[in-house]
Design a protein that fits this description.
It is built from 7 helices and no strands. The protein is mostly helical. The chain has one domain: Four Helix Bundle (Hemerythrin (Met), subunit A). The relative contact order is 0.16.
């Protein structure tokens, strides 16, 4: 094989479209997003018949904690993007270091969310208080569970990426975890305005 043929093969490989992550993670996320979409739809439908009551209950939510959590998750996702870019360039050390602030921002989200739940409990508000808070705890609680699943993945890769050269399987697993974490971020971008802001 001559140099021209090899160069053409490299160019073809470079231009070949690549869907990041594993196919199964996309199927899982599709099902997950459909599930959340159903809850969003049910929340919106119930709100139509109890609009004034939902708006009144919404006033007790802490916009500062909701806004802080939005910033934390967006920052975490940005660090994950930088980590995956570094991994694709075989920069394992840089990839690891980007995952550390991604994990810390995600952990910060978890701490703020627990504090918010404790704040509601201290005020005597729980999921049985009314329909609004039933949806509030159900939707944000499901999302919080997803955050708790994603955090160990970020920490695992922050520790595991020690080799100088990343093999295809490790990169694929990292991309799959990153896709999951971006879904967590995307869900919160919908949840925050839907539950906290839109009246």
């Amino acid at each position: 094989m001559n140099a021209i043929d090899m160069s053409c093969q490299r160019l073809a490989a470079k231009n070949e479209k690549h869907i990041p992550g594993d196919e199964m993670i996309w199927l899982f996320l599709l099902g997950d997003m459909v599930c959340f979409a159903l809850f969003f739809g049910l929340y919106s439908y119930t709100k139509l018949s109890q609009h004034a009551f939902f708006v009144e209950s919404q006033q007790a939510l802490n916009l500062h904690t909701g806004s802080l959590n939005t910033v934390l998750l967006l920052a975490s996702s940005w660090f994950v993007v930088l980590s995956v870019k570094a991994a694709r360039r075989q920069m394992a050390a840089a990839s690891r270091w980007f995952l550390l602030p991604a994990f810390l921002c995600g952990a910060g989200f978890a701490v703020v969310k627990v504090w918010e739940y404790k704040e509601k409990a201290a005020a005597g508000i729980n999921f049985l208080s009314n329909d609004f808070y039933l949806f509030y705890y159900l939707i944000t609680g499901m999302h919080f569970a997803h955050v708790l699943i994603g955090l160990p993945l970020l920490l695992y890769f922050a520790i595991a990426l020690r080799r100088d050269r990343l093999d295809a399987k490790t990169l694929n697993n990292l991309e799959s975890s990153a896709i999951y974490w971006h879904m967590v971020d995307l869900l919160w971008i919908v949840i925050f305005p839907l539950i906290y802001l839109v009246q």
